[in-house]
């Protein structure tokens, strides 16, 4: 076990180190991940422990990083690549979508691509353009890959271990706003958490709050505030967006009859729209009020001063939950 509580970014480092010690096929690659330990220090110390053959500093070329990662995985390695920022992922899409996500099907199972692409994700750190995007929906409709978004140090550790061990490509978005926001005790025991399941973090009877990533903290705080008003909110951390564990969400909404979906990404075609559509298809007769979404705006995240106004807040989630409670079908 860690000697003391650790942050989310330290939990990622701990998971990488554990898996590299126990599986020689695991290697790390990306821009500045080696000698410098990564722009966010996620790979700090790994180069010193494992050397330059397993911790590879690459050129500043995301297309090459993605192609190399797909090739290494298809050849039997288990590479973990870093897209230094979320806005840098777009040059990687060609290799990941056209090759990584398709090789198992293309070869009828003769090849598979056990790769992880780590993507520092989302706003809230006052970074410039291309450094603060919530672009998870870029990958949520792509067959053949998993999309994972941890929300705490413990889940970051367990889900990253599971992602590295998975036989297919995993896009692992890391909410950088909470990289160092708080700490938890994280046993370094190599125990993976299950992929493809939601985590119910708080039980409730009146309204279901569905969210992922950095917004989990705001939803838990909103649930606490709502409890002071006599409103019992259940909080679900989706964690794996693709494939979606819709059964857990549907079971909760069938009990509460109300649902508020919260995400930082732009509203139009955000992943919350997919969840709302499935609720309309499967749970319409259980709903006591329309599903409400609390999201970012249909703009690029504004720089610096307006960043906090763009990201859903505890107050906006509480307001939405109150409105959901007040409305009826």
Automatic annotation (TrEMBL):
Its cofactor is thiamine diphosphate. InterPro entries: THDP-binding (IPR029061), Transketo_C/PFOR_II (IPR009014), Transketolase-like_Pyr-bd (IPR005475), Transketolase_C (IPR033248). It is an enzyme of class 1 (oxidoreductase). Gene3D superfamilies: 3.40.50.920, 3.40.50.970. Residues 6-181 form the Transketolase-like pyrimidine-binding domain. One of its GO terms (molecular function) is oxidoreductase activity. Its EC number is 1.2.4.-. SUPFAM superfamilies: Thiamin diphosphate-binding fold (THDP-binding) (SSF52518), TK C-terminal domain-like (SSF52922). Keywords: Oxidoreductase, Thiamine pyrophosphate. This is Alpha-ketoacid dehydrogenase subunit beta. It comes from Aquilutibacter rugosus. The lineage of its organism: Bacteria, Pseudomonadati, Pseudomonadota, Gammaproteobacteria, Lysobacterales.
């Amino acid at each position: 076990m860690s000697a003391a509580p650790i942050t989310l970014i330290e939990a990622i480092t701990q998971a990488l180190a554990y898996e590299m010690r126990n599986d020689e096929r695991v290697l790390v690659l990306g821009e500045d991940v080696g000698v410098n330990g990564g722009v966010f220090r996620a790979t700090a110390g790994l180069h010193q422990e494992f050397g330059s053959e397993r911790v590879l500093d690459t050129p500043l070329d995301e297309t090459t990083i993605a192609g190399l990662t797909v090739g290494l995985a298809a050849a039997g390695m288990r590479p973990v690549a870093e897209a230094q920022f979320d806005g840098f992922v777009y040059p990687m899409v060609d290799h990941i979508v056209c090759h990584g996500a398709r090789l198992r099907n293309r070869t009828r199972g003769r090849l598979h691509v056990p790769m992880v692409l780590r993507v520092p994700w989302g706003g809230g750190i006052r970074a410039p353009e291309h450094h603060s995007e919530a672009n998870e929906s870029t990958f949520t409709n792509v067959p053949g890959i998993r999309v994972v978004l941890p929300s705490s140090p413990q889940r970051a550790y367990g889900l990253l271990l599971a992602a590295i061990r998975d036989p297919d490509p995993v896009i692992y978005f890391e909410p950088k706003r909470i990289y160092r926001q708080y700490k938890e005790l994280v046993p370094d025991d190599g125990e993976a958490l299950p992929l493809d399941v939601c985590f119910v973090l708080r039980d409730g009877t009146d309204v279901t709050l569905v969210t992922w990533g950095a917004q989990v903290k705001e939803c838990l705080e909103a649930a606490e505030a709502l409890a002071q008003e006599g409103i019992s909110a259940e909080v679900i951390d989706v964690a794996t967006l693709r494939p979606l564990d819709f059964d857990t969400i549907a079971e909760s909404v069938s009990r509460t009859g109300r649902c508020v979906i919260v995400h930082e990404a732009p509203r139009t075609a955000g992943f919350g729209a997919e969840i709302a559509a499935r609720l309309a298809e499967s749970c319409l007769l259980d709903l006591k009020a329309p599903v409400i979404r609390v999201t970012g705006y249909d703009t690029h995240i504004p720089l610096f001063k307006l960043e906090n106004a763009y990201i859903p807040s505890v107050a906006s989630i509480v307001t939405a939950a109150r409105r959901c409670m007040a409305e009826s079908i």
